[in-house]
Design brief:
Number of helices of chain A: 15
Oligomer: heterodimer
Largest interface: A-B, 50 and 50 residues
Shape of chain A: globular
Number of strands of chain A: 0
Shape of chain B: globular
Order of helices and strands of chain A: HHHHHHHHHHHHHHH
CATH class of chain B: Mainly Alpha
Number of domains of chain B: 1
CATH topology of chain A: ABC transporter involved in vitamin B12 uptake, BtuC
CATH superfamily of chain A: ABC transporter involved in vitamin B12 uptake, BtuC
Distance between the termini of chain A: 6 Å
Order of helices and strands of chain B: HHHHHHHHHHHHHH
CATH architecture of chain A: Orthogonal Bundle
Number of helices of chain B: 14
Helix content of chain B: over 70%
Radius of gyration of chain B: 21 Å
Strand content of chain B: under 5%
CATH architecture of chain B: Orthogonal Bundle
Largest sheet of chain B: none
Distance between the termini of chain B: 28 Å
Chain lengths: 378, 350
Amino acid sequence: MGIDLNESKKKEYRNIVARKVFFLAICLIILIVTTIVSCSVGTGYEFSKTAQVIWDHIIGVTYPVRSPDWWADYYIFNNVMPGVIMALIAGAGLALAGAVMQSMMENPLADAYTTGISSGACLGAVVAIIMGYSYSTVVSGAGIVINAFIGSLIPAVIVILMVRYVGNSPATIILIGTALTFFFNSMVTLVMITSSAESLQEAYIWQVGSVTNASWADMPLMLMMCVASAVLVQLSSNKLNIMALGEKSAKSLGLDVVQFRMLCIILTSVLIASIISFTGIIGFIGLVAPHITRFLVGGDNRFVIPGSMIMGSTVLVLADLASRMLVSYGNIPLGVVMSFIGAPIFLYLIVRRKSDKEVFRWQGKRITRAWCAKNGSS
Amino acid sequence: MAGKEDYKSVVRKKWLFIVLCAVLIMVALVLSLSIGMYDISFFDCYRVLIEHITGNITDPYEDDIIWYTRLPISVFAVIVGAVLSLGGSVMQTMLRNPLADPYTMGVSSGALLGASLAIILGESVLPFFNDQWAKIVMAFMFSLIPVSVILLFSIKRKVTPTKVILIGIAMMYIFSAIVQLIMITSSEETLAEIYSWRVGTLALTTWETIPIPLAISIVCGILLMSHHRRINVMMAGTKSAHSMGVDPNRTLIIETALVSLMTAAVVSFTGTIGFVGLVGPHIARLFVGSETKHLIPASAVFGGLFLLLANCIARVSGEYGLPVGVISAIIGCPLFIFILIKMRRKSAWS
């Protein structure tokens, strides 16, 4: 027996959904505009010109070789766009991972960076690169990603095990994650410095994240992982909603919590590994994007997941744009700009008055009601 | 009278640990001099040192390497380690938080921000102060920001010890992002140097850097040592401290300011070296217990020894050596997690 809902309630629910979908569509348009603006900044071409060149490229128009248009196309596509698109994909992927982890761990402070998973992945990738793998071929590139995945599992497993030992206090879990981040970052430096002629500078770039060395060849693997995870997560977003109610409620609603959590961890680890191997550790994006999205569209994961991805892309593309616009003052890595935006939000999330559990519980009630409404009153 | 005898022998053992650490520092100091690109044996180092002190230098080249390049770094390592570790022990006792130290509370990163602002704005920042002093004063002022934020939160709202540290770490992220941005945009420093500042390095030390931090830390150290009774009482809790005739808020403010000043004096030359203030006191506590009178000197000497050895490891890693902060983080992070687990399992920290 469900809750008996009359027709007007259902209509109201449909209205809310429509409004949220409309809102997501607007965000998507903003993202596209931002991306095109970002591609045009620094190239000397105007917005409309850039948009036209990109559109022409997509629909397959070819210009006569060495004409001005051809040069514009060549320049935008080979010098500017790889970085922008990589920021876009990385932002979407990391935000997705953050949203999943927050719901799964019932911890509003969780994301790939604060739990140390990014650093573990980074260590794996760096070790693989030092062992001689490179991004030159697909197989070798996959080798790096697999190694990064193994590396990312170490902190993930430690954090999950710690929940059993120290209880699910968000602050404690994040402190453990932060300590793991410091540890793995130091290991990255140590491994890089002792094993080869790498400089401290390169170690630093890996630890703050950067998209300046992006190339089109890096994209397919990242994009594939990102799309696959997004589809899988979106399909199980209702389960995530149930997880956010708390472990006991989820069990009583018939969800195999342990198994689902395991699946989520593996999925996010693969996703994070495939991104971090190319960009280095970009912090806070998985924290910022889902929270902005939740603030705007509420806590229902069916909307939070796509919303976070769009928001994550937008924020990271903007951060990349900022780091490129400041280039005349010095070479600022993307990660530094991102932590400039993200760290204050992190602080706010720690000190705000609303208790950590409250965020999800309150949303949980609404979600259950909405879910019942959707599936009729049976 | 047997009880008194027992107590005396316990105290003697504690002092023995302190003296032992001090002796070990002497040995490790010479050991650290023999490590480096140019190979000089352990006993040759002694010879060179004694020759320099007595004034008849036989090999000017070796003398130059040992006395002017390696010795300042090692001496400063001991000072920095002692200062950070002492600061950690005082903060842990006062706040009754086993995870507190100048690094995790954000003091170091605040100090670094102040110091880098002073460097970038030049001498004109503060009137009446010359370059080096301006740097330290600015570092001190900025180091108070994160502590005051944390203290405000912990007084106004009941926050758990873990949350206090999390606030400190968030402040650290913010401050270090600002420092990195300032450094990249305003000077010709390279990313490698910025990285060194971020994790803390001793490689830039010369004899000129040492006197001021040394003087400040000796003064602050003696002051803190003379306040050991008050600090000890703070461990019993705010109310108990009140009933024992100690004003807890005043003590908190004074001792925190002293620790911040001391930290600022070293951090403005080294960058933020992490986790030393965690390793030193916790290991020292294993040997001498929690009484502040012995804990302060013990953690100071042990911290000095620890950072000296960490610096030895850092210098032999890689072709050109590593910033020492990398090594101290690798050793300190597991300890941090261990303390966290232990803390959550026991309901209260004793």
